[in-house]
Amino acid sequence: MELHALDLYIKSLIKEAGHLIRNSLATELVIEAKSNANDLVTNMDKEIEQFFISRIRRDFPGHRVFGEEGFGDVIENLDGTVWILDPIDGTMNFIHQKSNFAISLGIYENGIGKLGYIYDVVNDNLYHAVNGEGAYCNDERLLPLKETSLDKSIVGINATWVTPNRYIRHEDSIRLIQDVRGTRSYGSAALELAYLATGRIDAYLSMRLSPWDIAGGMVIAKEVGAIATNFKDEPANLLKQDSFIAANPSVHSKILTEYIHVK
Amino acid sequence: MELHALDLYIKSLIKEAGHLIRNSLATELVIEAKSNANDLVTNMDKEIEQFFISRIRRDFPGHRVFGEEGFGDVIENLDGTVWILDPIDGTMNFIHQKSNFAISLGIYENGIGKLGYIYDVVNDNLYHAVNGEGAYCNDERLLPLKETSLDKSIVGINATWVTPNRYIRHEDSIRLIQDVRGTRSYGSAALELAYLATGRIDAYLSMRLSPWDIAGGMVIAKEVGAIATNFKDEPANLLKQDSFIAANPSVHSKILTEYIHVK
């Protein structure tokens, strides 16, 4: 299928999934813990991933799916067309807040991000991008990121990463939050990437994110000029959990070189 | 004026102020720094405070106004009827995000919170309460807070407060963020109180807040059963800047006694 036709197909699919999620908000969720007591999954995460997969299998049998809940394919490379999906990014918010979560989806062809989607379900805001053709929130085109400086930046970072941890030297991340204008934490990587793309925050970083957390947002963020890498300044990892920073180009390199020291 | 009539008057006034703010979003702001480079004020903070004060002076000449921008009265006690107003709570978000800010207003009679308002201007959500008559978001009544436990709680706390600071022992606040389910930071005390009142977060704390940051939200939060104090477990300070915690009653005392140690 041609890219613009696929884009229309996916928008419709995402809206349908959003409808299913909104309808579920009034019902009781079945909640389970995964890797630890705060790593949660609900019946809806699973149902929405299965909803996507059944449609993809039917309509795009040659495509592969890399989904958070594991109903898709085992993905060890990005050959061909791969859908990288988080059916509900920000599950804790979904459970606890019934808002501030998103469907996140990126379509990659031989490793190149072609289409990106972040759907803020409750507010009905669909952020999306076609590679090389700009990013949008609903029908409104997002402007290229403006030049800024670190002392005027708002950074999306969870408090955890300025406390002793096994990933980075927290003494340096403490300096970071002292040197920026402010910090925020919203609890959904996908939404924080959408906020980066709209200029509401100037950088977003986390010690460990999975491909489905970032795949959709990276296509969108790239279209407005943001840079996304891991903490070694390598291309962000779309196969395995890794560190991640996406930022306004004015501050990306400065944050990485002066404030992030991987242990 | 009788309380319910005053409530209707204020709702209308707040909506008018919100309209002025929304209209300003497309215009260039005049931004100044106050106590430090990141303590910002705009022409709109000032204009909106003056808008409120001109109406209050005209229609309620016996009332006093305690406003963030200082156009109101010098307030050294809460005798009589006092309007405690933050025309734009979350000014940094207002400037940087054009969202995630609020008008915050509390009406106190001889120190007792009678009416409370938090207006999320961009999303057009008005949280409000009349003392003893429950709290609402728009027309929807907010439910009493449910019993919870610390390990299932989401806490609103800025990353700053888990780094070395002159107010509290950060070793203890680090334990707090390790023991809770998650932390969030939204950059507007008023909105974080609204989120507490709707159960989206279970506690919100900050080392230093001013009366206008909390006056409206306290009336609302109290109606759903939240407890608001300073870090010494004294009634929250409505005359001076002070520490502040508002929380679900299941966790308020535990957070204060086990995790907060004022220096």
From TrEMBL, chains A, B:
GO terms for biological process: inositol biosynthetic process; phosphatidylinositol phosphate biosynthetic process; signal transduction. Its cofactor is Mg(2+). Mg(2+) binds at residues 68, 86, 88-89, 213. The keyword RNA-binding does not apply. The keyword Cell membrane does not apply. GO terms for molecular function: inositol monophosphate 1-phosphatase activity; metal ion binding. It catalyses: a myo-inositol phosphate + H2O = myo-inositol + phosphate. Keywords: Hydrolase, Magnesium, Metal-binding. It comes from the Bacteria. Pathway: Polyol metabolism; myo-inositol biosynthesis; myo-inositol from D-glucose 6-phosphate: step 2/2. Its EC number is 3.1.3.25. PANTHER family: INOSITOL MONOPHOSPHATASE, INOSITOL-1-MONOPHOSPHATASE-RELATED. This is inositol-phosphate phosphatase. It comes from Planomicrobium soli. The lineage of its organism: Bacteria, Bacillati, Bacillota, Bacilli, Bacillales.
